[in-house]
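Inverse folding, one chain.
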């Protein structure tokens, strides 16, 4: 695997601690990045690690080092822990979440390797490679006894149609097998260009398959899913492959099914207890082929996990997204482009309105208009909350811990999704409500709510269409100034002259009045983009100018 170095504007160098022995490819990857510094210190004790961990932005581990609550007690600048591999049993994810530290793994990197292993087991099982080789090493030569079956023309049932399940399916189809699959979390009749029929009930699939291969996580639904009862639904002589997790196939039921002839044989890489006891019947059963949890054990996978772990850390630290999150608290990060654009909009809108939230927050209400945004609800909500709270709290706030932080502060968060209708198209409404005594007497009407509304149009660019009742159409990006002023002639001139005096170039300006600007106390809102941030003096003078009620300078991410 080659490390790709992208030229970038380096403003910060991230310190990456390799706390376990990593494949050299991963270390090299970090060294090649111009915004990363590698600290390679495998084998530290718990105390030693706890002492230095806070000096780093990211830590990469395998299964050797134990990342305990004690290690994370003083997290300092640590923002992400990457597990080069899949299992995170050695990481106290709860403690990491508490401190707002993201935990990621690199499940993708072992997909092909594990799928190949499952496939190798299936081939070996069909051709009796295990017992034939054993006999051979004992000096035997028994050709009739080990006659096998070919794969072509057989039906493979894939249980769990995620990364590995689909990778196995593609290989099986290349071997001219028919493939069907069961995965209750895939709501489709067929998959892989209509070539794989999907079943929504496990038992319904079983009578149709010659072989079953398992690629599901172990949980309450999958534990023992192939048992005496479900074996009864299978064809006689069904072959079973398990390279997922021990316990998915009930081991006692499996042995009974093999002994009764219901099951023609099994190939098992994973066990309920690993390693299984020396006298475990699966170890010596003539119709069972076992490997000691070798699914992900290839040189290529080890290289890939170390590079992927390093890349995942840097992606997160650079603010380019999250890959392989383990502790994001149910956060869905595989958003559709539209949902992702709304999450980005939520962040920009909240940043824009944040300086107007001067007296605290008791409630945040988010309304997503457009049912297609539902899947991105959690990410959109968290993006807005982070932007609202970050500037106000000294504790680290990020999308991992923001809901906890809000809850701990008694802030009520309510996010709803509603259908679009003829009046309201797709949009995002964010309302930040202050506590009852937070009435800002200067602003009319004197309510406690700050409200901002945004949309993403077909060009996928974010727009703000309303702030506190003022209507506009503006792309929230770059250096901006939001200004509330008396609605009277000459105000634009005052602002323009002052900005000119301070050599601040106004690139774009939106002026908005309330729908009913007449009457005493009428105010207007000016939002303008400037080419570079205005200095403190310019802002002070702006604030002091007659007729100007409020000024806030905001730096938003540039337009994408
Ligand atoms: P994945 O998350 O991409 O896919 C798992 C799939 O299982 C998902 O599509 C999910 O919808 C489905 N699923 C969840 N509950 C289900 C249920 N009750 N019934 C049917 N399907 C269900 O994961 P993956 O990367 O493909 O990994 C699959 C399994 O392989 C995991 O258990 C993983 O731990 C294991 N694994 C084993 C090894 C090894 O060394 N043998 C290596 C890597 C992964």
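Residues assigned per position:
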């Amino acid at each position: 695997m080659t490390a790709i170095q992208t030229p970038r504007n380096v403003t910060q160098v991230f310190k990456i601690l390799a706390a376990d022995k990593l494949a050299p490819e991963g270390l090299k990857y970090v060294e090649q990045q111009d915004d990363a510094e590698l600290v390679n210190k495998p084998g530290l004790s718990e105390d030693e690690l706890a002492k230095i961990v806070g000096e780093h932005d990211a830590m990469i581990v395998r299964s050797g080092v134990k990342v305990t609550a004690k290690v994370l007690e003083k997290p300092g600048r640590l923002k992400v822990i990457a597990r080069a591999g899949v299992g995170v049993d050695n990481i106290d994810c709860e403690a990491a979440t508490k401190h707002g530290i993201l935990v990621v793994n690199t499940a993708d990197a072992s997909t092909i390797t594990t799928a190949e292993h499952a496939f190798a087991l299936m081939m070996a099982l069909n051709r009796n490679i295990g017992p034939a080789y054993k006999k051979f090493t004992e000096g035997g030569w028994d050709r009739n006894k080990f006659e096998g079956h070919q794969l072509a023309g057989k039906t493979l049932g894939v249980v769990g149609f995620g990364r590995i399940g689909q990778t196995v399916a593609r290989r099986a189809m290349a071997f001219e097998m028919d493939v069907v699959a069961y995965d209750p979390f895939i709501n489709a009749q067929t998959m892989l260009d209509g070539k794989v029929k999907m079943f929504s009930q496990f038992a319904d699939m079983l009578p149709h398959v010659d072989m079953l291969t398992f690629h599901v996580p172990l949980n309450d639904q999958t534990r023992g899913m192939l048992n005496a009862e479900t074996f009864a639904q299978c064809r006689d002589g069904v072959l079973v492959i398990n390279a997922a997790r021990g316990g998915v196939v009930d081991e006692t039921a499996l042995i009974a099914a093999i002994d009764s002839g219901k099951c023609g044989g099994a190939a098992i890489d994973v066990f309920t207890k690993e390693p299984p006891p020396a006298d475990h019947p699966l170890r010596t059963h003539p119709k069972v082929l076992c490997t000691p949890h070798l699914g992900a054990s290839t040189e290529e996978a080890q290289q890939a996990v170390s590079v992927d772990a390093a890349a995942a850390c840097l992606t997160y630290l650079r603010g380019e997204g999250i890959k392989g999150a383990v502790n994001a608290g149910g956060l869905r990060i595989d958003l559709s482009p539209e949902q992702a654009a709304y999450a980005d909009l939520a962040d920009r809108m909240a940043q824009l309105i944040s300086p107007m939230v001067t007296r605290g927050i008791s409630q945040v209400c988010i309304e997503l208009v457009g049912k297609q945004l539902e899947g991105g609800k959690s990410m959109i909500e968290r993006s807005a909350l982070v932007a609202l709270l970050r500037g106000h709290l000294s504790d680290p706030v990020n999308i991992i811990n923001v809901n906890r932080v809000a809850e701990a502060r008694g802030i009520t968060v309510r996010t709803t999704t509603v259908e679009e209708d003829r009046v309201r198209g797709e949009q995002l409404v964010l309302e930040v409500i202050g506590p009852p005594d937070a009435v800002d007497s200067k602003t009319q009407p004197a309510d406690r709510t700050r409200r901002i509304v945004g949309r993403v149009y077909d060009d996928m660019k974010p727009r703000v269409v309303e702030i506190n009742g003022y209507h506009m159409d503006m792309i929230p990006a770059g250096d901006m100034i939001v200004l509330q002023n008396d609605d009277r002639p000459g105000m634009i001139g005052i602002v323009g002259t002052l900005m000119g005096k301070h050599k601040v170039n106004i690139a774009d300006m939106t002026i908005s009045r309330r729908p009913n600007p007449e009457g005493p106390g009428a105010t207007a809102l000016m939002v303008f983009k400037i080419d570079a941030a205005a200095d403190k003096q310019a802002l002070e003078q702006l604030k002091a100018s007659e007729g100007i009620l409020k000024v806030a300078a905001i730096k938003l991410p540039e337009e994408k």
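The longest strand covers residues 449-456. The CA atoms of residues 48 and 448 lie 50 Å apart.
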